[in-house]
Amino acid sequence: MPRELPPDLTRPPGRTDVRSALLGGKTFRSLSEQTLSPREERFERARQTIGFFLAPAVGLTFALLPVPMDRNQQLLAAVLLGVIILWICEPVPIPVGGLLGVAAVVILGVAPASQVLAPFGSTTIFTFIGAFILAAAMLKHGLARRLAFAVLSVPGVAGSTYRVIIAFGVITCLLSAFVSNTATVAMLMPTALGILAVIAQLMQDRGIVRADFDPLRLRVGTALMLMLAYGASVGGLLTPVGSPPNLIGRGLIEEATGVRISFAQWTATAAPLCLAMFVVLAVIMFLLNKPEVRRIEGVEEYIREQKAAHGKISRAEVNTLIAFGVTVSLWLLPAAVSLVSGTDSAAYLFLDDRLDEGIVAVLGASLLFILPTNWKERQATLTWSDAAKIDWGTILLFGTGIIFGSLLESTGLAGTIGAAASQNLDITNIVAITAFSAALAILISETTSNTASAAVVVPIVIPLCQALGIDPFVPALAATFAASFGFMLPVSTPQNAIVYGSGAVPITRMIRTGLVFDILGALLIIGIVPVMVAVTGIGR
Fold first, then answer.
1. 499 and 226 in contact (C-beta within 8 Å)?
2. CB 450 within 8 A of CB 483
3. What CA–CA distance (Å, rounded) separates 91 from 105?
4. Rounded to two decimals, what is the model's pTM?
5. DSSP 110
6. How far apart are CA 192 and CA 307, in angstroms?
7. How far is residue 14's CA from residue 17's CA, in Å, rounded to a whole number?
8. Looking at residue 237, what DSSP letter applies?
9. Of 441, 452, 432, which Cα lies nearest the Cα of 479?
């Protein structure tokens, strides 16, 4: 998060300042910045040391192997292998690993710098910037904390950490069906961090954790953050406008088959899949990241006291709400129009073209520098010094992911991977090709972006099916859904990058939880999509 908060001068020496740790913007921390047990420190030190030597060794070895590949494709694959190891082992901060890979691609001559760096102008990058500036205002003026207490005040929620996490998952799923996954997580994360700060403070006050504990390594924090990121990916499957891969995949399928997929047909087909995935997500989350406590006695009383202490809403909070409301409304407007007039209407096409997600985000953020808190002194809601402290590491990280996704497509490496896999695996029937489509889409999404995955895999799957005399609809739809997966790495999806940037999700926990959910999610796609296509008649 974007701002360093002043330390609590009233706390005893050796006692962790929970609020500063969780809301102070410290991300991508080195070993010296973390509070680890001796066992954890040995593991982290070994992991990083291995990465220092394994990444260049694997990259160089693959680059020198005599494989029957185009030279640029081989060099790109070698760089990607090294970068993935850097991301997993973290011998350097994850954004730096991505930047090293980008530099290597240019130096090795895979593509010119102007082509390689062009994706940094992606609308997703501007969505990150705008959303992070809005989040900075919410944290600075206490709005995130106020909203956190409002959520915790809902009857039956505050008494259980499990119910808090589930509540956030449900809200995220429903919102991301109509608002972009990135925007949904960016909107909700400041509130989630506020709630996590409250839970961590209560655990500290009641002696559940040590006084000098590290609140960024709590399992409850990991579960809450990952529920936001993964819940958005699940909810984004529900409607055609829920995520870019849906629109890309639907367009390619319609073009190849000549059959139009309606909004209602898509939603009816995806709904059982989304429901099953959410149930599996909740089970996985609590099994692998079991919160340290289930109930915290006295939390309701604590929340009442804190809500009373907040007092009346300030002018700065009102201004932040206005900027936030304008941003969300403009994000929702195209989707609302599509529900009324359809995605082929002139009104929807006009709004969808003009109200670009990234432009809306920076426009809403700009209002924070216009709306005054004190007009006489020309004091705005946010200063540029505040905005300059946003999480630029996460922005750089996802920018490098977009770059690698673009290079996979432009060099033809993605097509080479798909063709080689299909030949070597001897895929000849619809079940096998559906499983292959889902697995390949998840694999590419893990290392690049979900948009790149849909754009690359669906065009591979459709002609492959046609060559085998198989109806491409089910495998292509499975690949489209699977492209929204990619739960293991921060670079896999924008929402993964956002929650990783909170500092509350250790990379090892993200990889472990994401791997299990990738596998079970793929099995759900393979099992449910063919059944629902038959039930709803979609594509006929």
1. yes
2. yes
3. 20
4. 0.66
5. S
6. 16
7. 9
8. T
9. 441
